[in-house]
Amino acid sequence: MTATRTSAPIAANATAPAITATGLRKSYGDKLVLDGIDLNIAEGTIFALLGPNGAGKTTAVKILSTLITADPDSGPIHVGGHDLAADPQSVRAAIGVTGQFSAVDGLITGEENMLLMADLHHLDRREGRRTAAELLERFDLVDAAKKPASTYSGGMKRRLDLAMTLVGNPRIIFLDEPTTGLDPRSRHNMWGIIRELVSSGVTVFLTTQYLDEADELADRIAVLSDGRIAAEGTAEELKRLIPGGHVRLRFADPTAYQSAAVALREVTRDDEALSLQIPSDGSQRELRAILDWLDSAGIEADELTVHTPDLDDVFFALTGGSANKPSLPNQPKEVVR
Known about the structure:
The protein has helices spanning 57-64, 88-94, 110-120, 125-138, 154-165, 184-199, 211-217, 235-239, 254-263, 284-297, 311-319, and strands at 17-28, 31-42, 46-50, 77-79, 82-83, 95-98, 172-176, 203-207, 220-225, 228-233, 246-250, 268-270, 275-279, 303-307, 334-336. By secondary structure, the chain is an alpha/beta fold. Strands 6-7-8-3-9-10 form a six-stranded mixed sheet, with helices on both faces. Strands 12-13-11-14-15 form a five-stranded antiparallel sheet, covered by helices on one side. Strands 2-1-4-5 form a four-stranded antiparallel sheet, with helices on one face. A hairpin with a 2-residue loop joins strand 4 (77-79) and strand 5.
């Protein structure tokens, strides 16, 4: 998402860009954090930036959201159609940011947090209350609205944090590790909210420590390594960069197993399990060829499974197997047919 590839994006987005950057650089003293990365993120899509801890993901978000400045030798950066260097105020008006750490004030209620954000956006009292009420309902926080935010669960605080981000009606939202620390149910709830935002035309720039999250949500994914984008593309495009895909056939009949093992080329045998492993990219063409061969030979496999590299494999290949890799809950790598 092969191992030594350090290329530009696989394909350019055809739709209008929400964010573009050319040669984005950032250093702190002698430490170069971002070494000339290029971005082209289409409107109404989810873009995920992956990388080891300390790779520069949060630094990229901070630059694009005007919190810090890029190095002077960086190329042009545009966010929401505005030049970041020349018109940062217009960029701020177009974006929302939800960081790794919640901006929720636990000493006041959820509703008061929302109204405070409305004041910061200079909404009048009536408009602020209407917006707060609508967002609290949208994020299923009405019953808890009058309670101190300190009493909220982690998932509720994340939802409130995102609701606060939406008070200004941003068209671009930066989500910096938005589900860190949440339980699986809360993570899935947050995924649903993110999808709803994008379906309404919002663009989401996502950094995450969960590879399955990027696989599940992102239209395009970039892998950041040593300050550069090692590869970019859809999840499926990135997975195809990594070798190791195969089809596994399992047999209940030892005779059928032996016949298949003798006839098939480039096959790895497991005589104890009566299974054969055939190198494959998992494409429909290759699967059809295998099935057609089995039919023509009169051999019936009791089970066929397709194994393809996942984003975990991609990450290790592109970042050199960093010990600070993003998290990946245990997930099967096979699809049973």
